[in-house]
C-alpha cells in the first residue's frame, strides 16, 4: 500500500460523526443478533441487511450462494482507477440453531446474547462501512471498486461456502481482488493473517449387532469407537502445538441390552500447515483401521466396517507480518492508539489466503467473549476504537493509488 490517505484531515470529521453514532450502531448490532441466522438458513438476516443497504442507496445483489453484495464504484475518471476491487466480508451466520432463544440481557457494561459479537458486531460495522463508502468525500477519492459482501455459511459445517462462492465468481469474471478483509467479531488490535486450516470428519463403525448375552462375541462398534477415541487422545497430545485434533461429538448404540450395530465419532482437526493436516488425517485413518481390526479379531467372520465421511474442509494459508496488507492494518491499529497483535484463526479470510490473495481478518470494535456459546457477551464501552480502525483501513486501501500484492 503506497499511500495512506487515512491520516488526511478530510477523514477526521467523518470519523467524528461515526464516533457520535455509537448508540445507533449498537442498536443495529442488537437487532442483528436478535434475528436468527443459523448456518444454512441466513435468509431473514440477509433480507434485513439487504434492505438496510438499499435504503442507503446501494444497488444490492444476491449471488447463487445467498451472499448479499454491494459494489461501491469510484467517481473519479475510469482512466485513473484500477479495476481489481478491494473486498470486505462479514459472515451472516451463527453457530446457533433456529430455536435458540436470542434473549438480550444486560449486566453492567456487558450485553449477553448468542451471536451478539460473532458476528453481530462485524455486521453492524458493515452497515457503517456501507454508509461511509457512500460519502462523496470518500467516493471521490476511491481508486478502485470496493465490494461489501455479507457471506453465508462461514461457521462450522457451512465450510466457508459463501466466501468460496464469491471468490470463485470473482475468478471466473477475471476480477481477482487486490486484497480481502474479513470483519469478524469484536476487537481492536488483533490482525489475523494466519488462516487455520481444518478438516472435520465422521468415523462410523458398523457391525451386525446382536443380543448382549447370546451374541457376546459379536464385534461391538461402540467398543471400537471407544478404542479409537483413546488412541486419538494420544495423537492429540503428540500433535500439539502444531496441530490439534479433538473428538467433538459421539453417538452409538440402540438398546440397553443389545450389541450395537453402529457408533460414530466426529473429529475436528486443525493446523496452520496443510501438510500436517494431511498427516493427521492419515494417522486418524490408521487408528480407525486398527480399532476395527482389534474389535473384529475375536470374530473374523463377522467383521466390522468403518467409513470416514468428510464433514468439513477449510484450507490453510498465511501472509507474513511484513506483507503490505498486514503493515497497512498495523498502521491503522496504531492510528487509533492500539498496539497491533498477530493472530491465527479460521475465518472467511482462509479462502483468499489459500488462493494467494492477500487477506486478513480484523475485529470491529468493543470486547467480548464466550463466542459460540449461549453465554456469549459483548461490551460496547470502547467500541469506537476498533470501528475507527476498520474504517481507516478500508478507506486507506480503497483510496491508495497502488496496492502492492
Ligand atoms: Zn465469526
List the helices and strands and how they pair.
Elements: H1 11-20, H2 22-33, H3 43-55, E1 60-62, E2 68-72, E3 86-91, E4 105-107, E5 110-112, H4 120-132, H5 136-139, E6 146-151, H6 161-173, E7 179-183, E8 190-195, E9 197-206, E10 210-211, H7 221-239, E11 243-252, E12 258-259, E13 262-271, H8 274-296, E14 305-314, E15 317-318, H9 324-335, E16 341-345, H10 350-354, E17 359-362, E18 367-369, E19 377-379, H11 383-399
The structure holds zinc ion.
How would you characterize this protein structure?
Helix 7 (221-239) runs antiparallel to helix 8 (274-296). This protein is of the alpha+beta class and 405 residues long. The protein is elongated, with a radius of gyration of 24 Å. It has helices spanning 11-20, 22-33, 43-55, 120-132, 136-139, 161-173, 221-239, 274-296, 324-335, 350-354, 383-399; strands at residues 60-62, 68-72, 86-91, 105-107, 110-112, 146-151, 179-183, 190-195, 197-206, 210-211, 243-252, 258-259, 262-271, 305-314, 317-318, 341-345, 359-362, 367-369, 377-379. The strands form 4 sheets. Strands 1, 2, 3, 6, 7, 8, 15, 16 and 17 form a 9-stranded mixed beta sheet that branches. A 4-stranded antiparallel beta sheet has the order 4-5-19-18, with no helix packed on it. The protein folds into 2 domains: 5-196 and 316-399, Aminopeptidase; 197-314, Alpha-Beta Plaits, CATH 3.30.70.360. It contains 11 helices and 19 strands. Helix content is 35%, strand content 24%. The chain binds zinc ion (ZN). The site of zinc ion has 5 residues, from loops.
Amino acid at each position: 500500500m503506497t499511500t495512506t490517505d487515512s491520516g488526511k484531515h478530510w477523514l477526521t470529521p467523518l470519523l467524528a460523526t461515526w464516533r457520535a453514532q455509537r448508540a445507533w450502531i449498537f442498536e443495529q448490532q442488537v437487532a442483528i443478533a436478535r434475528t436468527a441466522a443459523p448456518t444454512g438458513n441466513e435468509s431473514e438476516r440477509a433480507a434485513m441487511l439487504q434492505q438496510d443497504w438499499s435504503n442507503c442507496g446501494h444497488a444490492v445483489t444476491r449471488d447463487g450462494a445467498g451472499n448479499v453484495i454491494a459494489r461501491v464504484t469510484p467517481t473519479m475518471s475510469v482512466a485513473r482507477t484500477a479495476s481489481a476491487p478491494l473486498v470486505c466480508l462479514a459472515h451472516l451466520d451463527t453457530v446457533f440453531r433456529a430455536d435458540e432463544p436470542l434473549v438480550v440481557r444486560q449486566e453492567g457494561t456487558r450485553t449477553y446474547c448468542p451471536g451478539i459479537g460473532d458476528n453481530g458486531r462485524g455486521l453492524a460495522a458493515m452497515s457503517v462501512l456501507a454508509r461511509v463508502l457512500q460519502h462523496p468525500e470518500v467516493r471521490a477519492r476511491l481508486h478502485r471498486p470496493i465490494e461489501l459482501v455479507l457471506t453465508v455459511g462461514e461457521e462450522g459445517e457451512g465450510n466457508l461456502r459463501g466466501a468460496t462462492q464469491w471468490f470463485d465468481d470473482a475468478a471466473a469474471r477475471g476480477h481477482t481482488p487486490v486484497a480481502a478483509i474479513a470483519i469478524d467479531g469484536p476487537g481492536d488490535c488483533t490482525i489475523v493473517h494466519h488462516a487455520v486450516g481444518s478438516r472435520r470428519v465422521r468415523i462410523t463403525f458398523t457391525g451386525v449387532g446382536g443380543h448382549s448375552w447370546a451374541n457376546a462375541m459379536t464385534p461391538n462398534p461402540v467398543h471400537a469407537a471407544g478404542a479409537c477415541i483413546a488412541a486419538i487422545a494420544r495423537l492429540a497430545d503428540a500433535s500439539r502445538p502444531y496441530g490439534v485434533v479433538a473428538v467433538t461429538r459421539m453417538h452409538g448404540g440402540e438398546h440397553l441390552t443389545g450389541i450395537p450395530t453402529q457408533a460414530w465419532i466426529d473429529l475436528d482437526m486443525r493446523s496452520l500447515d496443510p501438510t500436517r493436516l494431511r498427516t493427521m488425517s492419515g494417522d486418524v485413518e490408521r487408528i480407525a483401521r486398527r480399532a476395527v481390526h482389534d474389535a473384529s479379531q475375536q470374530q473374523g467372520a463377522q467383521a466390522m466396517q468403518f467409513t470416514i465421511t468428510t464433514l468439513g474442509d477449510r484450507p490453510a494459508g498465511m501472509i507474513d507480518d511484513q506483507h503490505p496488507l498486514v503493515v497497512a492494518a498495523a498502521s491503522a491499529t496504531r492510528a487509533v492508539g492500539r498496539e497491533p497483535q498477530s493472530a491465527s484463526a479460521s475465518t472467511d479470510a482462509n479462502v483468499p489466503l489459500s488462493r494467494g490473495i492477500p487477506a486478513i481478518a480484523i475485529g470491529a470494535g468493543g470486547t467480548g467473549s464466550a463466542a459460540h456459546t449461549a453465554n456469549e457477551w459483548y461490551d460496547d464501552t470502547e467500541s469506537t476504537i476498533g470501528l475507527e480502525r476498520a474504517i481507516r483501513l478500508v478507506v486507506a486501501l480503497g483510496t491508495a493509488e497502488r496496492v502492492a500484492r
